[in-house]
Amino acid sequence: MALEISKILAPVADPVEEVHGFRYWDGRSILGFVDGTENPEQYERAFYGLIGEADPAYKGGSYLFVQKYIHDLKAFKALPLDQQEKVFGRYRESDVEMPDGVKPANSHSALANVGDDLKVIRDNMPFGNMSTNEMGTYFIAYASTFDTVNKMLKNMFVGSPAGNYDRLLDFSTAETGSLFFVPTLEMLDAMSQGSFEINTVSKDVTEGNKDNKDSNHQIISDPIQELSSLGIGSLKS
Ligand code: HEM
After folding, report:
1. Which portions of the chain are predicted below pLDDT 70?
2. What is the whole-number distance in angstroms between the Cα of residue 88 and the centre of ligand 1?
3. Measured from the CA of 114, which atom of ligand 1 is nearest?
4. Structural domain of 112
5. Count of the separate structural domains present in the chain
6. CA-based R_g, the chain, Å
7. 3 part of a folded domain
8. CA-CA distance, 65 to 146, in Å (whole number)?
9. Is 133 a domain residue?
10. Residue 125: closest CA among 41, 46, 68, 64
11. Suppose 176 and one of 1, 5, 68, 78 were both cysteines; which one would form an S-S bond, judging by CB atoms 3.0 to 4.6 Å apart?
């Protein structure tokens, strides 16, 4: 399949890297903790993962954000189990979230959770290469709006409050960061027939619609520029 896709993309793209991810025991990340537990389920997946009514021209598409993280597995595994659990704010064996008051403010689950109505669909893949000793997580998330991902990244990297950054980053280095628009099949058909018109999106930030389930799309002014200023992965300018 990779060969077939490469053939189609060959005239417009050069492959620069190939990383093989795998599914690990119980859907755990290579750090040993179950990854994906708090993902939205059932009808909520489409609500949080696909562009909604607020942007009809792109409805049904999705914003896909991927980042390649390399883990310092040796340093993480050297931590006693209770310290590893504090990195995530969850217990490793049971995958149960730590209660308030026990969960550290700099844990991954404390900082990545930016609100009950602001979610993304995560589909991370662990990867490992024994010959290069590269062990990591390919962070993969689909969202109805990039604004939500941006908020999560700011919380993790800048911290909340600023300086209280995500402890997971002490063991994880973001090497890349790319934002893609994923079109629907209908959009792809229209593009192949040359009939898809890309509307110039306004710089409208439709804040205040977070409680409105019919209007789940927000446009942020310049997401890549904002991320570059966070110095995340290859987005560093
Ligand atoms: C360094 C790579 C990463 C690893 C290994 C990782 C792993 C995990 C794990 C094990 C959990 C707890 C279980 C779960 O709910 O899935 C979790 C939660 C979560 N992660 Fe990550 N993650 C990574 C990066 C990120 C990034 C970059 C974001 C956002 C841009 C993110 C967003 C989230 C969110 C939203 C949750 C759920 C928080 C909650 O509501 O409790 N993660 N992650």
Report:
1. 198-237
2. 8
3. 35
4. 16-235
5. 1
6. 19
7. no
8. 8
9. yes
10. 68
11. 68
Phi and psi torsions of 181, nearest 5°:
-100, 130
Structure tokens at 233: 């992965």
Determine, yes or no, domain membership for 198: yes
Task: Looking at the CA of residue 36, tell me the nearest atom of ligand 1.
Answer: 16
* DSSP classification of residue 193: T
Residue 26, by phi and psi: left (phi above 0), alpha (psi -120 to 50) or beta?
A: left
Q: Is residue 204 part of a domain?
A: yes
> For residue 136, what are its two tokens?
């990591």
**Contact of 21 with 125, CB cutoff 8 Å:** yes
pLDDT, tens digit, 9 for 90 and up, residues 19-28 = 999 998 889 9
| Cα–ligand 1 centroid distance for 156 (angstroms) | 10
Q: Is 35 in the pocket of ligand 1 (CB under 6 A)?
A: yes
pLDDT at 235: 45
Query: What crossing angle do the helices spanning 146-157 and 223-230 adopt, rounded to 10°?
Result: 10
- Burial grade of 69 (CB within 10 A; 0-12, 13-18, 19 or more): buried
